[in-house]
Amino acid sequence: MDIRSQISMVFHLDKCIGCHTCSVACKNIWTDRKGAEYMWWNNVETKPGTGYPTKWENQNIYQGGWVKNGDGIELKGAGKQKGLLNIFHNPNLPLIDDYYEPFTYKYLDLIESPAGDDQPTARPVSLITGKPIDIKMGPNWDDDLSGTPDFARNDPNFKNLSPAEQEAMFQLERMAFFYLPRICNHCLNPACVASCPSGAIYKRGEDGVVLINQNVCRAWRMCVTACPYKKSYYNWHTGKSEKCILCYPRIEAGYAPACMHSCVGRIRYLGVILYDADLIHKVASADEKDLIDRQMDILMDPFDPEVIASAKANGIADSTIHAAQNSPTYKFIKQWGLALPLHAEFRTLPMLFYVPPLLPVMASVKEAHNKKQAEKLSPISKVWDDDWLYNTATAEIWGTVDQARFPLKYLASMFSAGDEEKVKDRLKKMMAVRIYRRFKTVGDISEQKAMDALKDVGYTPEMAEDVYYLTSLAKFDDRFVVPAAHREHAIEMLEFTGDKKGSAGFGFKEDTMGRGL
Known about the structure:
Oligomer: single chain
CATH class of the domain at 358-477: Mainly Alpha
């Protein structure tokens, strides 16, 4: 047993309002500079949609992540042999058009244009070439399904849906979408680390944050190919690769990352999780149908004496172990079984998890048992009627999970490697909590039915109250449970490496002691 600590994040998708405040906060702090104009370390996508860069989920195009090879795994599009063959020409890199060509407007034209009969306009110009361009897309071009004909219908997650199921999602009366915030997953089995020929990318032992040493990076860009989430970027000005650093300078000082601190919907939860590093290869090499279960198995109980002893033997501080015991992410992922990883089939073991969106069901419960009738109902008028609310504790309500506006097949493609039952289980648990709270606050559902609903999903009233509190009423300190860094450990690491220039930071600039700021 090799217990290590990992900072993980949970996104509650039912709470995301798509305001992009997180993205703007990240952009202002980290990528508001030359060469990084097109980078969005944090971005919020509308689903269905092709995302940023376009169709990033389709690894037949970008060759990212790992694939199973016998009893082990290998990089899909990078690695020693593949990397050597493509070292001077990598055909699997996203082009600038797959992201978008960053642009601004010549606002001075509005002020300095000579008087005339026509209204002056501010022409768009490229931030790369400085020349006028015709804007064809942006980092969130399909926001709120605005680009549905060209973007949303090309969503790679539609691959398992029939044409009829896809078309049903785009009927006006059934149209539904949700927001998907994305940052670097700081994976336990990061493909970017394994692919780097220079060894510039590493995973910090104290908190699991994945970083790129700017002094060592030689811009081979294999990390861009290898990352299946496309969260490693190439800075065309500095000639270095860059990525999300989870705002580790803020975390070390006891502050939340900028994206979390600025989140309007309070959808983000940050906490420490203990995991067994000895199991990483076994978990990553599991059959696809077992990936989710095996990834959950690698996350260890922070109250287990054996786990605590192993953690301390690895130098994990008492404050970190205490944070793991109070971690909101551990509760969502393991204790309550509500959160799932994004595209586990990439086998990177991502440490960002998502609570699937509990969108309104397609029809009322009383008629859901009759599928032909349910298909004729107007989903807008029948979603939250009294019969639906009253009958939620009966067996019929669990049947209506399959009638959700978003097909389980679509959600499963994103969050459970295609296993619809795992998504259904999470949705049922969220429904059960709502049923119980309806009984508590409104009283139009009997106590027996509320208790039956909780029992069906393996919850107790105490668990339901805890889920409700952390989802709806939690204070900031309940959502952010990460200890400040131990300065003495950081100094020991610098002395051990003997690297006067420092190797523990992003390295945009250095202080007088040579440490990356």
